[in-house]
Design brief:
The chain is α/β, with parallel strands linked by helices. Helices cover 35% and strands 20% of the residues. It contains 22 helices and 23 strands. Strands 1, 2, 3, 4, 5, 21, 22 and 23 form an eight-stranded mixed β-sheet that branches. The protein has a six-stranded mixed β-sheet with strand order 7-8-9-10-12-11. A five-stranded parallel β-sheet has the order 16-17-18-19-20. The radius of gyration is 25 Å and the shape is globular. The termini are far apart.
Length: 599
């Protein structure tokens, strides 16, 4: 028998439970009033999105979503702009990107102002003068992004060119590919490189007619010279780079970044920045399998610690196609420089190292992402993957090809058969398409660099990446290049390899989320997923495709919090880097300020 007291208690409990249920269905934020591209084929567009506690509460018609609204719900009127899932980095180097953000900008137009050796020297001098205290403290000068293909002289600078900037401080300038660099005499001295120094395995020390190092260092020769310089910065220096890199990724709409070829020290620097509350986005690290097996075994995880997790192994087989260090299966077309007849590049590692590394990753059930640019490098990777699968089966580790600039069509078939996810680099068509056509592979094969069309013909997913700091992590430049394949000169390189805008957006969101085992929590705007968003100045699916690179990232939202907003009237470009939102002001106020500034 239920007494009056019991009935009162049950009624009160029901009211409490009803209140709890109502609170659980109350939106913190509702986005509406613009194009909402969900990247979810089951529900491609929506009128509104509700967010609760950093997760997506509901997606659908405005009338339905407003049922989650209360007096405390923040309403975000997109004012005709576009809301998309936050971009997921298919491949990049976020900590090295921080070095790029904090060093002299040696990029050619449109991302910089270096067009010849003289302007390169002047840029270094101006940067050193503007950062005199920092240079004095760290006792070095670093420049990032020069490209001999874009210099009037069509050659690399030499140590003498850099000595003219400073003979007091070591200078290291990094090629835009990240696979070569130039050191001045002081930097060569610190690295212990002399005429008697032999080329390291997988690297080249270029020399003058007298056999003396001319300053240009390729692959492992470059890496072994750069590391001693950067090691002088210590853990705090790495943390500074990690923070700056993550901020730059956020500026271009990325809510998940990658740090390829990490070291244990780099991962620990990322964790320290995150613990200090200064890492605005998620970062997935892939330490070098040749150097960090113990660290990998101890740290690989599908779960984040804060904003950081170690996702698997990175393997690097060859080098840079535009720098003529990628391993081809045939000679380069017309290489610029002192190359022997029939030169086809070279591998940075042996086939034995490749096979042992891939086997180790399969044996431990770890994902392996492999840098292979030339056809010869892909041949090595395909053989290694076949052998590993025969020996260990399929551990469902989703192996990834990184770059694949020069591929034969039969290699695409092999990658499909092996279940390889292809993280491609169509942005190369803009930056180096003309160079590839004229010098690396020639006009016929250049049509098929980064062959996204071949991949889609086989119904394969792919990721479209920036490989920053090879280029800025410019999401709209990636989108534009993947769709149009237009080069710097205006040529269209490989029209049959172009894809539509929605396919290109999937290659920046849901497909790289799948690549990294995060398709159930990221990459699309769906109920239950993390509220990772980017707001663009217009809907990329309705504008002229030739204007995609003019779209602006207005705001980046990570788990419901604003982590970047564009300065009034400014596009999101690293050349005029707007600051992050430090105090997490509400998004409505930020957008209003932006609208008032540009309308």
């Amino acid at each position: 028998m239920i007494t009056k007291a019991c009935a009162t208690l049950l009624l009160g409990s029901g009211l409490v439970l009803s209140g709890i249920a109502a609170a659980q269905n109350t939106a913190d934020t509702i986005y509406m009033g613009g194009s909402i591209l969900t990247i979810n084929d089951a529900q491609p567009t929506a009128e509104a999105v509700a967010v609760k506690d950093g997760q997506i509460l509901a997606v659908g018609d405005l009338a339905d979503i407003t049922s989650f609204q209360t007096d405390t719900t923040e309403l975000i009127d997109l004012n005709g702009r576009a809301l998309l899932p936050g971009f997921v980095d298919s491949h990049g180097h976020v900590v090295m990107g921080g070095i790029q953000a904090l060093s002299a900008n040696l990029l050619a137009p449109p991302d910089g102002e270096v067009t010849d050796i003289t302007s390169l020297q002047q840029t270094l001098r101006s940067w050193a003068d503007a950062n005199a205290e920092a240079v004095k403290q760290v006792k070095m000068i670093i420049g990032f992004g020069y490209d001999n293909a874009q210099l009037k002289e069509l050659r690399h600078p030499t140590r003498e060119d850099l000595d003219a900037v400073s003979s007091e401080y070591p200078i290291m300038i990094v090629h835009q590919s990240g696979h070569l660099g130039v050191a001045n005499s002081k930097a060569l001295e610190i690295a212990g490189i002399t005429a008697a120094t032999e080329n390291p395995a997988g690297g080249v020390i270029r020399r003058d007619s007298n056999g003396e190092p001319n300053g240009v260092l390729e692959e492992y020769a470059f890496f072994t010279a750069l590391v001693p310089m950067l090691s002088e910065l210590g853990p705090e220096g790495l943390q500074t780079f990690a923070k700056a890199g993550a901020e730059m990724w956020a500026q271009f709409g990325y809510t998940t970044a990658q740090d390829g070829r990490s070291s244990g020290g780099v991962v620990e620097a990322l964790k320290a920045v995150d613990q200090a509350g200064d890492l605005p986005i998620d970062v997935i690290a892939f330490p070098d399998v040749l150097e960090a097996k113990d660290y990998l075994k101890a740290n690989v995880s599908m779960d984040y610690s804060g904003h950081v997790r170690v996702g698997g192994c990175k393997l690097t087989i060859d080098g840079s196609p535009q720098g003529f260090t990628a391993l081809r299966d045939r000679p380069y077309y017309d290489p610029v420089g002192d190359y022997p007849e029939g030169y086809a590049g070279y591998a940075a590692v042996t086939m034995e190292q490749v096979q042992d590394s891939v086997n180790w990753c399969y044996q431990h059930g770890m994902q392996v992402i492999t840098h292979a640019n030339g056809e010869g490098a892909s041949d090595m990777l395909i053989d290694a993957l076949k052998n590993a699968q025969q020996a260990y089966g399929d551990p469902d580790n989703r192996p990834v090809l990184i770059h694949g600039q020069f591929l034969r069509e039969d290699q695409v078939d092999s990658y499909k058969e092996l279940g390889v996810f292809m993280s491609l680099f169509p942005m190369h068509t803009f930056y180096w398409g003309d160079w590839h056509r004229d010098h690396t592979v020639g006009p016929v094969n250049a049509e098929n660099i980064s062959p996204t069309g071949w991949v889609r013909e086989r119904d394969m997913m792919f990721g479209s990446h920036h490989d920053a700091p090879v280029a800025f992590p410019d999401s709209m430049r990636i989108l534009d290049a993947t769709v149009t394949r237009r080069t710097r000169s205006g040529d269209i390189l490989g029209p049959t390899q172009r894809v539509d805008v929605m396919t290109a957006l999937k290659a920046m969101t849901i497909w790289p989320a799948w690549q990294q085992f995060e398709e159930n929590s990221k990459g699309s705007i769906e109920k239950g997923k993390v509220a990772d968003f980017v707001i663009l100045s217009a809907d990329p699916t309705v504008i002229d495709p030739e204007t995609l690179d003019q779209l602006q990232v207005l705001m980046t939202i990570k788990a419901g919090k604003v982590v970047y907003q564009a300065e009034t009237g400014l596009a999101a470009t690293a050349l005029g880097r707007p600051p992050l939102v430090a105090d997490q002001e509400n998004a409505h106020q930020l957008l209003d300020a932006w609208y008032q500034g540009v309308n």
